[in-house]
Design a protein that fits this description.
The chain has 578 residues and is an alpha+beta fold. It has three domains: 110 residues, Tumour Suppressor Smad4 (Sandwich), CATH 2.60.200; 223 residues, Beta-Lactamase; 244 residues, PPM-type phosphatase domain (Phosphatase 2c, domain 1). Helices cover 31% and strands 28% of the residues. The chain has 14 helices and 29 strands. A six-stranded antiparallel β-sheet has the order 2-1-11-10-7-8, with helices on one face. The protein has a six-stranded antiparallel β-sheet with strand order 14-13-12-19-16-15, sandwiched between helices. A five-stranded mixed β-sheet has the order 4-3-5-6-9, with no helix packed on it. A hairpin with a 3-residue loop joins strand 13 and strand 14. Helix 3 runs parallel beside helix 8 and helix 4 packs antiparallel against helix 8.
């Protein structure tokens, strides 16, 4: 166990599913997080959280979060991590719906803004004793203590606003939050006496004062509008409501340091909203009043910023759950095992990327003499591709009902082109192999399968073709080939050929051909493993943008035992050839 850094304090805002919040100070390292109090410094009362979940540690003067075995993983700002250095306001979550979210907080021990303010207040306490300064300071202390409470978010914001109204002697106050459309929406409205603003109130905030504060990125504090600039005096809402004092303070997220051209500079954080107060009486704001207003504005911005980050994290979790369901459905549609026909053996795999892709493959009998196989890739990723994939699979599998391949592809192409708003197309390769080794196939813009034979590895199809759903006039015609015993067709998606390394170089078809060269007589599962292993080794350290899908089909003649790779049949064939 180690001591904390001598220069910085760390704490964690624990936000419960009901938005209640509590601040927990990190007092020692490692700081253990998990289910139950036994051995944990921060116990999370959620049975879905692992007992040994995560830990805060210090390394080279920085705080790090480590995954200590949580079954669903630990996420920082929506990204799954094993170990990551933490910055102030990073959001930590655990891949669970309606569970606890943690906001990491770090502060320098050398005179934070609030401590500096408090020190100044103490040094001039006597001068404020007769003017009510100490009572106002007490209000500020109460407001900051709310940050450590377990009250719901809106209750904390309301209490902060009530204290701001009391400090300024305003008639009312509003917290206006930045909306997605670029405008402002009212988060809460309060009036003096710690009451919500009356629904019958016809008062509206001064858009002129708010616009000035936002445009100037600075507070607008006017004690007497009769002495204010003309633009404020003439503002319609101010005149109509006979306002005499207005306060509009823009709220921003905490700034972060960015590096450009080797120069470190501080940028203003994201705009969060406006703290607004007004009164029909002139005010007289002392220096202390202004400092307290600034402090309350900073703390309100902090609460809003944390709430925004938590909301984004929960939305990410919701989307991830939906994508997870889509991934499960996609995987369920893939063949779980291959029923080998007397004349062929099959092996295949789909390795999904982090998102839902549009890859799928299938194998099904046409009749006792013929077996069909297909591989397809719907354009794009996400739920759109996931929704279109089952439709495409159903249409193509209808060929088992004696529907010709040309007719099925023409139907799917017409449907997708007539529903252009779907914005999707698909590449596909479809083949039918009979007991005599006769192959009929149709390619719709898909990467050409590789044919692994005794004379090497070649591309089966070198002509051009259109994906289905791209051009309504596209024609897809059947081509034919003759396979010899032992020949293997290797079908793959662009997740194989376009797998990228850390330098954004593609794996490419030449590397795939080189990988398959030694595997003419290898068991299919070995050849499949060689492909996946080569791609993963090539792309190690680079995040992939598409699923990796392969389907291997080997013609075995009429060999009886094809449960595993037909190595014996191939060797016998080679001996006869020799």
């Amino acid at each position: 166990m180690s001591n904390l850094s001598a220069s910085r304090d760390a704490s964690i805002d624990v936000i419960a599913p009901d938005s209640a919040r509590e601040r927990v100070v990190v007092t020692q390292l490692p700081f253990l997080i998990g289910r139950g109090e036994a051995g944990n410094h921060l116990p999370l009362p959620d049975p879905r959280v692992s007992r040994q979940c995560a830990a805060l540690v210090e390394d080279a003067g920085e705080f790090w979060i480590e995954d200590r075995g949580h079954r669903l993983g630990v996420f920082v700002n929506g990204k799954k991590i094993d170990r990551k250095a933490l910055e102030d306001r990073d959001v930590i979550s655990f891949g669970l719906e309606d569970s606890y979210t943690l906001v990491f907080r770090i502060t320098d021990r050398v005179s934070p803004s609030l401590q500096t303010l408090m020190t100044r207040m103490e040094s001039v306490a006597e001068s404020y004793a007769t003017s009510g300064g100490l009572s106002k300071l007490k209000l500020l202390l109460e407001a900051t203590m709310l940050l450590h409470s377990q009250l719901p978010l809106d209750s904390v914001l309301e209490a902060m606003m009530d204290r701001a109204i009391t400090v300024t002697g305003a008639d009312r106050g509003m917290l206006l939050e930045a909306a997605a459309d670029g405008g402002l929406r009212q988060r809460l409205a309060r009036e003096k006496g710690a009451q919500p603003l009356s629904p019958n109130s016809t008062l509206s905030p001064s858009q002129t004062a708010i616009g000035m504060a936002v445009e100037q990125q600075n507070s607008v504090i006017t004690e007497d509008l009769h002495l204010a600039p003309g633009v404020l005096q003439a503002a319609q809402s101010i005149v109509a409501q006979r306002l005499r004092a207005v306060v509009a303070i823009p709220l921003y997220a905490m700034p972060r340091a960015n590096t450009e051209a080797s120069l470190i500079h501080i940028q203003r954080g994201k705009f969060l909203g406006v703290l607004y107060l007004d009164s029909q009486r002139p005010a007289a704001f002392s220096a202390l009043d202004r400092q307290i207003l600034d402090a309350i504005a900073v703390e309100s911005a902090s609460i809003l910023d944390n709430a925004r980050l938590v909301e984004h994290e929960r939305e990410r979790q919701r989307i991830e759950r939906e994508l997870g369901i889509a991934r499960q459905i996609q995987q369920a549609l893939l063949p779980k095992e291959f029923h080998h026909s007397p004349h062929l053996a099959i092996s295949g795999a789909n390795v999904p990327c982090t998102e839902v892709g549009g890859d799928y493959f299938d194998v099904f009998p046409i009749d006792a003499q013929r077996t069909a196989f297909v591989i397809a890739d719907v354009s794009g990723k996400g739920l759109g591709a996931a929704l279109l994939t089952p439709m495409l699979q159903g249409a193509l599998s209808a060929m088992s009902l004696d529907v010709s391949p040309e007719r099925a592809f023409r139907h799917v192409n017409t449907f997708l082109c007539s529903h252009a708003e779907v914005g999707r197309y698909a590449t596909a390769f479809f083949g039918i192999l009979d007991r005599e080794g006769n192959l009929e196939y149709l390619n719709a813009g898909h990467p050409s399968p590789l044919l692994v034979g005794r004379n090497g590895v070649t591309e089966l199809y070198t002509g051009g073709s259109f994906p289905i759903g791209l051009i309504s006039e596209a024609q897809h015609t059947i081509a034919r080939a003759k396979l010899e015993v032992g020949d293997t067709l290797v079908l793959f998606s662009d997740g194989v050929s376009e797998a990228a390394d850390v330098s954004d170089e593609f794996f490419g078809v030449p590397r795939l051909i080189e990988t398959l060269g030694p595997h003419y007589a290898s068991p299919l599962d070995d050849a499949k493993a060689a492909i996946i292993g080569a791609v993963e080794q090539f792309s190690a350290g680079a995040e992939q943008a598409d699923d990796l899908t392969v389907l291997l089909v080997r013609y075995t003649g009429c060999a009886e035992d094809t449960k595993s790779a037909p190595l014996g049949a191939v060797m016998e064939f080679l001996r006869e050839e020799a």
